[in-house]
Amino acid sequence: MNCPFCRHEETKVTDSRNASESNAIRRRRECLKCLRRFTTFETVDLLIQIKKRDGLYEEFQVEKLIRGLDSACRHTRISHEQVLAIASEVTHEIMDLQTKEIDTLTIGKVVMDRLKKLDTIAYIRFACVYRRFKDKDELMHAIAGEERGI
Q1: Is the pTM of this model over 0.85?
Q2: Whether the Cβ atoms of residue 29 and residue 13 lie closer than 8 Å to each other
Q3: Structural domain boundaries of the chain?
Q4: Which residue in 32, 100, 106, 133 is a FRET match for 91, CA 20 to 30 A apart?
């Protein structure tokens, strides 16, 4: 790890702890040359491929999931901390599948199950993007079906 201040290659770790906002380790480091301190975050590289609806693949990105959840939960009673917790739960559930490939529909369903329990508006907003309703009748039919447990 190079020092961000003097670019010296030797640093030492002075403190390590879990980062609360993600599956990461927060490390405080000190440069052995200039003695300045800085923080780094170490995360696990999931290497899970997401199969998109158009057949293309992209790497799973927790940040993208968080952005989608933030959009769905904007102006609801769901806090950003809850969004981070949902993203962490979804990530753990995907990792528990022990697969290198997963489709967007599976991820969307997992997210919708979580949002449905927390807030109807966030759930509907996410469902509109996830299920791609063509008109309000499709949306109303889906909401009615969900209320009946279909």
Answers
A1: no
A2: yes
A3: 11-43, 49-147
A4: 133
